[in-house]
Write a structure and sequence with these properties.
Shape: elongated
Number of helices: 5
Strand content: under 5%
Number of strands: 2
Mean pLDDT: 94
Largest sheet: 2 strands, antiparallel
Structural class: mainly alpha
Order of helices and strands: HHEHHEH
Low-confidence stretches: none
Distance between the termini: 45 Å
Strand order of the largest sheet: 1-2
């Protein structure tokens, strides 16, 4: 679990860079209005999944049937990401397409996510054989990492709210960019 949590933290930092640099600074997705609505909704949904994963995985043991719920969350993230790969191509077409560096970033993030999944499977196996309950887990990788992931959970949750509001066209949700 220790390596899985470090990989999850690496994914959090990569995702934060991807969001701040490519989605916000370069593409200014929240300012695109209806043109980016579908992509912003996907980002918001994926952000909410990540907020739950970042907040819960370092602190809780998902034992017994709760492993199925956790597995469903991880699978949901995969489906949302694959759907986003398709949607972002047509949303970004008027901007000249998805930036080359962003494509590379997405590839790296996919590799890190896969490595995280590969490293969490042994924990799933151990949790599956225990009674079904959510329990506080002892720190697998130290208190600092737990709190870093908790902070990332808050950040990605707020990013999801912002994307959802921008997708809905709520006033001020494109700030600091001018809405197109």
């Amino acid at each position: 679990m220790k390596l899985a949590l470090y990989l999850l933290a690496a994914l959090a930092f990569l995702g934060a860079f991807d969001t701040l640099y490519y989605h916000e600074w370069r593409a200014r997705l929240p300012a695109l209005g209806a043109q980016a609505r579908s992509q912003l909704r996907l980002h918001a949904l994926r952000d909410f999944v990540y907020a739950l994963l970042f907040a819960a995985l370092p602190w809780l043991a998902w034992q017994g049937w709760y492993v199925v719920i956790l597995g469903a969350l991880l699978l949901t993230e995969i489906v949302l990401t694959l759907w986003d790969f398709v949607v972002e191509d047509w949303v970004r077409k008027p901007l000249g397409g998805v930036y080359a560096g962003e494509r590379v970033m997405h590839g790296v993030m996919g590799i890190v996510y896969g490595a995280m999944l590969a490293n969490i499977v042994p924990t799933f196996s151990a949790w599956w054989n225990r009674p079904s309950e959510l329990t506080l887990s002892r720190p697998a990788a130290g208190e600092a990492l737990r709190w870093v992931l908790a902070a990332m959970a808050l950040g990605v949750f707020l990013s999801g709210i912002r994307d959802w509001c921008a997708a809905a066209g709520l006033r001020g949700s494109a700030w600091p960019w001018a809405r197109h």
